[in-house]
Amino acid sequence: MTRAKDIMHEGAQWITRDETLTRAAQVMQMLDVGALPVSDDNGRMCGIITDRDIVVKCLAQGGNPDRATAGDLCEGTPRWIDANAEVEDVLHEMESHKIRRLPVIENKRLVGMISEADVARHLPDNQVAEFAGMIYSTAK
Protein backbone atom coordinates (compact mmCIF):
# COMPACT_ATOMS: atom_id res chain seq x y z
CA MET A 1 0.00 0.00 0.00
CA THR A 2 1.23 3.44 -0.90
CA ARG A 3 0.92 5.93 1.93
CA ALA A 4 1.00 9.73 2.11
CA LYS A 5 4.57 9.66 3.46
CA ASP A 6 5.64 7.67 0.39
CA ILE A 7 4.65 10.39 -2.08
CA MET A 8 5.10 13.58 -0.03
CA HIS A 9 7.83 16.15 -0.48
CA GLU A 10 9.83 16.13 2.76
CA GLY A 11 11.20 19.14 4.55
CA ALA A 12 8.06 21.27 4.57
CA GLN A 13 8.07 24.21 6.95
CA TRP A 14 5.41 26.50 8.21
CA ILE A 15 5.32 30.07 9.34
CA THR A 16 3.38 31.63 12.16
CA ARG A 17 0.27 33.64 11.47
CA ASP A 18 1.99 36.88 12.60
CA GLU A 19 4.80 36.65 10.00
CA THR A 20 4.59 39.28 7.27
CA LEU A 21 3.81 38.35 3.70
CA THR A 22 7.27 39.63 2.75
CA ARG A 23 8.78 37.06 5.12
CA ALA A 24 6.45 34.37 3.77
CA ALA A 25 7.63 35.13 0.23
CA GLN A 26 11.26 34.96 1.36
CA VAL A 27 10.70 31.55 2.97
CA MET A 28 8.94 30.32 -0.18
CA GLN A 29 11.89 31.49 -2.26
CA MET A 30 14.42 29.88 0.09
CA LEU A 31 12.56 26.55 0.05
CA ASP A 32 11.64 26.81 -3.65
CA VAL A 33 7.96 26.20 -2.89
CA GLY A 34 4.72 27.98 -3.73
CA ALA A 35 2.80 27.36 -0.51
CA LEU A 36 3.34 27.41 3.24
CA PRO A 37 1.17 26.08 6.03
CA VAL A 38 0.44 28.71 8.69
CA SER A 39 0.41 27.98 12.43
CA ASP A 40 -1.45 29.74 15.21
CA ASP A 41 -0.04 30.79 18.59
CA ASN A 42 -0.45 27.22 19.88
CA GLY A 43 1.59 25.66 17.07
CA ARG A 44 -1.48 24.28 15.29
CA MET A 45 -2.12 24.70 11.62
CA CYS A 46 -4.65 27.46 10.99
CA GLY A 47 -4.34 27.67 7.22
CA ILE A 48 -2.10 27.68 4.20
CA ILE A 49 -1.00 30.54 1.99
CA THR A 50 0.31 30.45 -1.56
CA ASP A 51 2.44 32.72 -3.66
CA ARG A 52 -0.70 33.44 -5.66
CA ASP A 53 -2.54 34.49 -2.48
CA ILE A 54 0.18 37.05 -1.77
CA VAL A 55 -0.07 38.50 -5.26
CA VAL A 56 -3.86 38.43 -5.71
CA LYS A 57 -5.07 39.11 -2.18
CA CYS A 58 -2.42 41.62 -1.12
CA LEU A 59 -0.31 43.17 -3.88
CA ALA A 60 -3.00 43.44 -6.55
CA GLN A 61 -5.30 45.11 -4.02
CA GLY A 62 -2.70 47.71 -3.06
CA GLY A 63 -1.80 45.99 0.22
CA ASN A 64 1.57 46.29 1.89
CA PRO A 65 3.30 42.89 2.25
CA ASP A 66 5.53 44.35 4.96
CA ARG A 67 2.46 44.98 7.12
CA ALA A 68 0.00 42.27 6.06
CA THR A 69 0.46 38.93 7.80
CA ALA A 70 0.06 35.30 6.84
CA GLY A 71 -2.87 35.14 9.24
CA ASP A 72 -4.62 37.90 7.27
CA LEU A 73 -4.85 35.57 4.27
CA CYS A 74 -5.88 32.34 6.01
CA GLU A 75 -9.44 31.41 5.19
CA GLY A 76 -11.62 28.42 5.89
CA THR A 77 -10.80 25.16 7.61
CA PRO A 78 -7.25 23.95 7.06
CA ARG A 79 -6.98 20.55 5.39
CA TRP A 80 -4.22 18.04 6.11
CA ILE A 81 -3.57 14.30 5.99
CA ASP A 82 -1.87 11.86 8.34
CA ALA A 83 1.47 10.53 7.09
CA ASN A 84 0.17 6.94 7.28
CA ALA A 85 -3.02 7.60 5.32
CA GLU A 86 -3.44 5.54 2.18
CA VAL A 87 -2.95 7.33 -1.13
CA GLU A 88 -6.65 6.88 -1.95
CA ASP A 89 -7.45 8.97 1.13
CA VAL A 90 -4.95 11.60 0.00
CA LEU A 91 -6.60 11.80 -3.42
CA HIS A 92 -10.08 11.92 -1.90
CA GLU A 93 -9.10 14.78 0.43
CA MET A 94 -7.53 16.79 -2.37
CA GLU A 95 -10.31 16.06 -4.88
CA SER A 96 -13.25 16.65 -2.56
CA HIS A 97 -11.87 20.03 -1.47
CA LYS A 98 -10.30 20.89 -4.85
CA ILE A 99 -6.94 21.61 -3.30
CA ARG A 100 -3.59 21.32 -5.02
CA ARG A 101 -1.33 21.10 -1.96
CA LEU A 102 -1.89 19.07 1.17
CA PRO A 103 0.19 19.25 4.37
CA VAL A 104 1.22 15.89 5.82
CA ILE A 105 1.20 15.53 9.61
CA GLU A 106 2.80 12.84 11.77
CA ASN A 107 2.59 12.87 15.57
CA LYS A 108 1.11 16.40 15.41
CA ARG A 109 4.14 17.68 13.46
CA LEU A 110 4.38 18.88 9.89
CA VAL A 111 6.57 16.38 8.03
CA GLY A 112 5.85 17.14 4.39
CA MET A 113 3.56 18.41 1.66
CA ILE A 114 1.87 16.65 -1.21
CA SER A 115 1.44 18.67 -4.38
CA GLU A 116 0.03 17.96 -7.82
CA ALA A 117 3.58 17.26 -8.98
CA ASP A 118 4.01 14.62 -6.26
CA VAL A 119 0.79 12.92 -7.38
CA ALA A 120 1.93 12.98 -11.01
CA ARG A 121 5.39 11.67 -10.13
CA HIS A 122 4.31 8.76 -7.96
CA LEU A 123 0.98 7.48 -9.23
CA PRO A 124 -0.11 5.63 -12.37
CA ASP A 125 -1.37 7.69 -15.31
CA ASN A 126 -5.00 6.62 -14.83
CA GLN A 127 -5.03 7.89 -11.22
CA VAL A 128 -3.31 11.12 -12.24
CA ALA A 129 -5.86 11.70 -15.01
CA GLU A 130 -8.80 11.10 -12.68
CA PHE A 131 -7.23 13.37 -10.05
CA ALA A 132 -6.66 16.19 -12.55
CA GLY A 133 -10.23 15.86 -13.82
CA MET A 134 -11.60 16.20 -10.30
CA ILE A 135 -9.34 19.08 -9.26
CA TYR A 136 -9.87 21.15 -12.38
CA SER A 137 -13.54 20.43 -13.08
CA THR A 138 -15.82 23.40 -12.69
CA ALA A 139 -18.87 21.26 -11.86
CA LYS A 140 -19.99 21.43 -8.25
From TrEMBL:
Superkingdom in the source lineage: Bacteria
Entry annotated with the keyword Iron: no
The CBS domain, residue ranges: 8-67, 73-130
Transmembrane segment boundaries: none
UniProt entry keywords in alphabetical sequence: CBS domain
Signal peptide: none
InterPro entries per the UniProt record, alphabetical: CBS_dom, CBS_dom_sf, Diverse_CBS-Domain
Protein's UniProt name: CBS domain-containing protein
